[in-house]
Specification:
Chain B: Keywords: ATP-binding, Nucleotide-binding, Transport. Chain B: This is ABC transporter domain-containing protein. Chain B: GO terms for molecular function: ABC-type transporter activity; ATP binding; ATP hydrolysis activity. Chain B: Belongs to the ABC transporter superfamily. The complex is a heterodimer of chains A (281) and B (416). By secondary structure, chain A is an all-alpha fold. In chain A, 68% of the residues lie in helices and 1% in strands. Chain A has 14 helices and one strand; from the N terminus they run E-H-H-H-H-H-H-H-H-H-H-H-H-H-H. In chain A, helix 2 packs across helix 7 and helix 4 packs across helix 12. In chain B, a hairpin with a 5-residue loop joins strand 16 and strand 17. In chain B, the strands form four sheets. Chain B has a six-stranded mixed sheet, with helices on both faces. In chain B, strands 11, 12, 13, 15 and 18 form a five-stranded antiparallel sheet that branches. In chain B, strands 14-20-19-16-17 form a five-stranded mixed sheet, with no helix packed on it. The relative contact order of chain B is 0.10. In chain B, helix 3 packs across helix 5 and helix 4 packs across helix 5. Chain B is built from eight helices and 20 strands. Classes of the chains: A mainly alpha (281), B alpha/beta (416). At the A-B interface, strand 1, helix 2, helix 6 and helix 14 of A face strand 1, helix 2, strand 5 and helix 3 of B. Strand 1 of chain A pairs antiparallel with strand 5 of chain B.
Chain lengths: 281, 416
């Protein structure tokens, strides 16, 4: 027969099977998912979207009290609150991307089990809706930044601040990539979702969110920070925003390579999983 | 005429692992992976048993579907019927790309959209209108497409008053209405529908069936329809695929297929009944009710009705069969016996056939008791052995149905 088939559903799996045309066709779904994620989180709350702002502020206040006022950790000339806020806002974006993506198959199995759409839409929507949250939180950071400057603080951003979007992109890639890898493994072995909670907590401390690098420098745990791409990301974002911190060319290249490889690996594994996860979840 | 095949299913099989996924899974996973990287065949594909829900098997793997092949033409409405666990939903899931087949291929010339247990994509906190957009997009529509059809969708759902209320306040029926409304305005080439009409009131079910008829008749779209509702299957489908234990039993026209399906449901009261009796000497083993030559439980007044009773006997003694007929209120309305017809059951007979040429009953549900007598004494009784439904029919042969509610019997009479 000389029939032309539109497409074939087959048991054979290609290693890379990414249909960009199809994802583009579903772009409206992506936007609607983003909208859903953003507006439904705080429905039926009095303060509504204000919670997006309150969360990082409270966290920063607590960190400042515990680590800087009580434990007396030196933040190297940067106002402790601003130091923590910068770290918390960036960290939150990465964390939300990671945890949001990591339980994607488990959380959406009802809908994934009923209709087909390109599965990758779901993690993409999480990264995008978190980007909006991140934008709101960043604005608050800027407001406090300006306040501290008028109060006579000497912190200033440096010219590398132009690269800030790249830092955000790297965080997104890392969160998305790691999240996709974990989400695929969670479909079979649920143990991982328990481990993830502890893992994220631990990762926060070795990612210099609340602790400056100087605390680790001569420590036997220094390697945990030296080979942690998130530590570089947080430190670098603080460096460009507040003009203070340690950076290195090795750190930049290492982080970039790491993020891109994790992302590609994530896509690969996610792609392999999405076809049959519904049988094993 | 050349057949315009829009969907071609070739040797689709689907294997599932039984039991829970636990520590044992890792060793199988590793073994499978080890075979795959050496380029060998998956060792677990060779094993596995056919999927019969009721029998216990030894294998850890079962084939939910095994070598399914069929073709669907453009504009055809194909019904897929079968008992619970026959593989209907698995087949639809593979067709709608929710899960992949273990082996085999499906080729299609059109976009497939599925309507599987509608409403799963709803977010309870969002309003009806917001959910129409979300659900439509999940099903593959663009925002612009939905906007142009929004009015129609709301109208069809009949939820105008609640459209700006969060869906969590909806009744379950309203959710289904809204979800079906969205799906009804989808425009795929092939629509896959899985038992959606179960919820919703009579008015809505009628509306939904009508809409699906329009989709196939006027728009020329192909519909694959799974249902246990034979009425809906009959009114919608031209062809039916009957699945049994994950395999294709038949693919034929709807009437024949429904008959086949009812045969599969022997235990359910569907015209055939098996008796498990340990009576000595002689016993009834099976009873069947037929309209002409087809097994059937739906009759019209004036139809012919045949009851066949199969026997197992180790004697040449005299046996007699009596049939008691009861109406839906449990009142005995007639009694038949071969001795009344002066007909002896042959000594070597393994089957007794009883026939009413022209069914003289008004509409209702009737039950048959069977009683086998050995040497003049009751020997083996089967209560409610068979049951059947009678609908108004043209008993008198005058071209119109007898009005129901006028008496219980139809009796030929002579007028001068």
């Amino acid at each position: 027969m000389n029939d032309k088939w539109l497409y074939t559903i087959s048991s054979k799996k290609k290693l890379i099977d990414f249909n960009f045309k199809e994802i583009w066709q579903y772009r409206d779904l992506l936007l609607l998912f983003v909208k859903r994620d953003v507006i439904t989180v705080y429905k039926q709350t009095v303060l509504g979207p204000l919670w997006y702002v309150i969360q990082p502020l409270f966290t920063s206040v607590i960190f400042t009290l515990v680590f800087n006022t009580i434990a007396n950790i030196d933040t190297g000339g940067i106002p402790p609150f601003l130091f923590n806020l910068a770290g918390v806002v960036s960290w939150n974006y990465f964390k939300e991307c990671l945890t949001g993506t990591a339980d994607i198959f488990k959380k959406n199995q009802a809908i994934f089990g009923k209709v087909y759409f390109p599965r990758v839409i779901m993690p993409l929507s999480i990264v995008l809706s978190n980007l909006i949250k991140f934008g709101i939180q960043l604005t608050i950071f800027v407001v406090f930044y300006l306040y501290f400057i008028t109060q006579g603080s000497t912190v200033r951003p440096n010219m590398f601040v132009l690269f800030f979007p790249v830092i955000v992109l790297v965080m997104g890639l890392l969160g998305l990539g790691l999240g996709m890898i974990i989400s695929s493994m969670v479909t079979r072995y649920r143990d991982l979702s328990f481990l993830l909670t502890f893992g994220v907590q631990l990762l926060m401390y070795i990612s210099l969110v609340t602790l400056p690098y100087s605390l680790f420098a001569d420590n036997s745990f220094a390697w945990a920070v030296d080979y942690n791409p998130m530590a570089y990301v947080i430190e670098f974002s603080r460096y460009v925003l507040l003009g203070e911190g340690t950076t290195s060319l090795f750190g930049v290249v290492y982080t970039l390579v790491f993020a891109v490889s994790v992302f590609l690996l994530g896509i690969l594994i996610f792609n392999k999983t999405e076809k049959s996860f519904i049988d094993t979840i | 005429m050349k057949k315009d095949v829009i969907l071609k299913v070739e040797n689709i099989s689907k294997q599932y692992r039984l039991g829970t996924i636990g520590t044992g899974t890792i060793s199988h996973d590793l073994n499978r992976w080890w075979h795959v990287i050496r380029g060998k065949e998956d060792p677990y594909l060779k094993i596995g048993e056919t999927n019969n829900r009721a029998t216990k098997g030894d294998s850890q793997y079962a084939w939910a579907l095994k070598d399914i092949s069929f073709e669907v033409e453009r504009g055809e409405v194909l019904g897929i019927i079968g008992k619970n666990g026959a593989g209907k939903s698995t087949l639809l899931k593979i067709l709608s790309k929710v899960t992949g087949p273990t082996t085999g291929e499906i080729k299609t010339k059109g976009r497939i959209a599925s309507l599987l247990e509608v409403g799963t994509g709803f977010h309870p906190e969002m309003t009806g209108k917001e959910n129409i957009f979300l659900n439509g997009a999940i099903l593959g529509m663009t925002k612009a497409e939905i906007s142009t059809k929004l009015e129609e969708i709301i109208e069809f759902s009949g939820c105008q008053r609640y459209i700006n209320t969060p869906v969590k306040r909806y009744s379950s029926g309203m959710k289904v209405r809204l979800a079906f409304a969205v799906a009804a305005f989808l425009e795929p080439d092939i629509l896959v529908v899985d038992e959606v009409l179960a919820v919703g009131d009579a008015e809505f079910q009628k509306k939904a069936i009508g809409k699906m008829q329009d989709i196939s008749n006027f728009d020329g779209r192909t519909v694959l329809f799974v249902s246990h509702n034979m009425g809906a299957i009959k009114s919608l489908c031209s062809q039916c695929l009957v699945l049994k234990n994950g395999q294709v039993q038949t693919l034929t026209n709807t009437d024949k297929a429904i008959n086949e399906y009812l045969l599969l449901n022997e235990q359910a009261n569907s015209g055939v009944n098996y008796f498990n009796s340990d009576k000595p000497i002689v016993r009834m083993t099976k009873a069947t009710i037929k309209n002409e030559n087809l097994i059937c439980t739906n009759f019209h007044s004036g139809d012919s009705l045949t009851v066949e009773v199969e026997l197992e006997k180790e004697t040449l003694d005299d046996i007699n069969l009596f049939i008691g007929l009861y109406n839906e209120y449990g009142e005995k309305i007639a009694h038949f016996g071969n001795s009344y017809a002066k007909k002896q059951i042959a000594k070597d007979a393994s089957k007794v056939i009883f026939k009413i040429k022209k069914l003289p009953f008004v509409s209702g549900l009737y039950t048959i008791n069977l009683s086998l007598h050995l040497m003049g004494k009751p020997h083996h009784r089967e209560l409610s052995a068979l049951s059947f439904q009678v609908d108004p029919g043209d008993y008198y042969g005058v071209g119109k149905n007898v009005i129901s509610g006028n008496g219980n019997f139809l009796i030929d009479s002579v007028w001068t």
